[in-house]
Amino acid sequence: MILEPAIALLQFETRLPLGKPVDFSRFARHTWLYPLAGYVVGGIAALVAFFIAPRPLAAAAALAVALLVTGFHHLDGLLDFGDGLMAHGSREKRVAALTDRSIGAGGVGLGLTVTFVAFAALFSVPSVAAAILAAEVFARLGTAWISIGGRPFKEGIHSTLHTNARPVHGFYAALFLLPLFLIQSPGSIALAGGITAFTVAGMITLGDRLFGGVNGDIAGATHEIVRALVIASLAIVL
After folding, report:
1. CA of 158: how far to CAs of 39, 47, 90, 110, 190, in Å?
2. Quick check: is 221 in a domain?
3. pTM listed for this prediction
4. Residue 23 carries which DSSP code?
5. Number of folded domains that form the chain
6. Domain with 125 in it
7. Contact 143/222 with Cβ under 8 angstroms?
8. Rounded distance between C-alpha atoms, residue 189 and residue 105, angstroms
């Protein structure tokens, strides 16, 4: 049954009250379900934005709700990635900065940059609600793809997902894009899909070069970066 893996996914990805905890391994074998969380989180954020008339407030509220519903789960990974990215020295020092629980200037700087880009782009799109929904789905697609293709450099959540993932899961995850054709043009979806693939490939390459692979922080950073870039692409082409 898909119900239990879906609940396990939403319990992992959100802070929504969903009853008794479901074993994470139920989702780990179904990483292709990741975009489903994008529809849930993006749908909640879109609903809030729909009822706010001033565009700056709608953009800020949509982004804030998306972050709050997830408990800043992926943003934390982006901050850690920023610290590792800006660290000087050997690979060991970069990994130590990436996995350190404290946040430094690199993390704050990257977090602010990506969040500002997402907000500015969301402020510029024709429909804040449609853009945040699409961006959350694409961001989760990016997370699914990096879970499949990103070779882990340490044991953890990412390594569990990677071990259970199969290449075909990437195709299954992409099928979740089909409903987006109801709210976005085929051209914008193709562009966003290309940006997602390019970002995932870039993050895997960067992870391999700087850290020896990928971990959950890099996967979370990929989510945040894909969201910002997809919204930016929608602001440009629409």
Report:
1. 22, 31, 23, 22, 27
2. yes
3. 0.96
4. P
5. 1
6. 31-237
7. yes
8. 35
Condensed to tens digits (0 to 9), the pLDDT of residues 141-190 reads 999 999 999 999 999 999 999 999 999 999 999 999 999 999 999 999 99
Q: Please write the tens of the pLDDT for every residue from 26-55.
A: 999 999 999 999 999 999 999 999 999 899
Tell me the C-alpha distance between 35 and 129, whole Å.
17
Burial status of residue 11 (CB atoms within 10 A of its CB: 0-12, 13-18, 19 or more): buried
Mind spelling out the 3-state secondary structure of 170-189?
HHHHHHHHHHHHHCCCHHHH
Mean residue pLDDT across the chain: 95
Q: Is residue 9 part of a domain?
A: no
DSSP state of 72: T
**Does an H or E element contain 54, and which?**
none
Longest dimension (CA), the chain: 50
pLDDT of residue 126: 92
Q: In this structure, is residue 1 part of a structural domain?
A: no
Measured CA to CA, the distance from residue 173 to residue 190 in angstroms comes to: 15
Terminal CA-CA length for the chain? 39
CA distance 204 to 9: 23
92: which residues sit within 8 A by CB, 6+ positions away? none
Residue 2 inside a domain? The answer is no
Query: What's CA 56's distance to the chain center, in Å?
Result: 23
